[in-house]
Amino acid sequence: MSLSASAPIQAPTRRRRSSRVREALLGYSLLAPAFIVLGVFGYYPLYRLVHFALYRPNRFGNGEVYVGPSNISSVLADEEFLDGLWISVKYLLYTVPTGLVIGMLLALLSHRRLRGIKVFQAIFSSTVATSVAVASVVFFGLVNPKIGKFGDVSFISLAKADSALRGVALTSIWQNVGLTFVIVLAGLQAVPDAVIEAARVDGFGPLRRLFRVTLPLISPTLLFLIVILMIFGFQSFAPMEILTHGGPAGATETLVFKIFQRRAPGQISEGSVMALGLFGLTFVVTLLQLTILNKRVHYGE
Q: If 0-12 CB within 10 Å is exposed, 13-18 middle and 19+ buried, where does residue 206 land?
């Protein structure tokens, strides 16, 4: 009697377990392509960087010598790495705040129900569709010391070591403006009109509505933008290569540019250590941003 009573109970249990197993296998099979791509193009290159950081190839690339972790510490403490890091930080300070502020202002100005506003929105967002190489060539024709329309402006002159980085930064600022505009405008359009209208009824002026209502509601969008723009700034390479080739006198040799210079077999170990240092720095900066700024972000229900 007990055996016949327990059989109907065990059968649905086995079916549920079998169903869960099939669902799990289906889920893993759907995720498998993503894991493969991530492994081939993400984790395997990272493994190769660590390998080259610990093993130094000869100049012909047909032999390796184990140099150990001391190679990592010596390269990260070297003047070349610190100089490239400082130039990268200055480049971030030139590009991220300026592009963020201008893009936000354009988004706020164009977030209106006016006839023809879509034309201006398309113009302001057009820089996103331009590649870095094309944008660099455009600004090469503007700020080049010999042929550029603004080549004689000393503040952005590419011929001077103390101003060349600002001239190169114009390319990234121009592209950051378009990216910021598109994302901030999308965030503004997601803000409920009823909230803005309620603030207006409560007597909030334009500036007070901006700082007390609008910006807190789009703060998750701003957090995302700051993190993305910082990562893009650390990874910038094409403007320096096209506009100045790292000059004059190495004034625009950012960390990525220095890594690119060390791609030969005899220098790839040093370049790999620099790349690992850049990866660690980007990871730490992103983590700090998410930790610190996330406390000031308002996630609406």
A: exposed
Tokens of 83: 């100089």
Chunked in runs of 10, what are the mean pLDDT values of the chain (301 residues)?
A: 52 74 87 92 90 82 80 91 94 94 93 85 87 88 81 84 92 92 92 87 86 87 90 91 90 94 87 93 88 70 51
> What is the model's pTM?
0.84
Rg (CA), the chain: 26
* Cα separation, 165 vs 155, whole angstroms: 10
Rounded distance, CA 52 to CA 66, Å?
9
Nearest by Cα to 274 from 93, 84, 88, 90: 84
Helix axes 219-234 and 164-189, enclosed angle (nearest 10): 150
Residue 52 neighbours by CB under 8 Å, 6+ apart? 268, 269, 271, 272
Domains and CATH numbers, the chain: 2-67 (no CATH), 72-296 (1.10.3720.10)
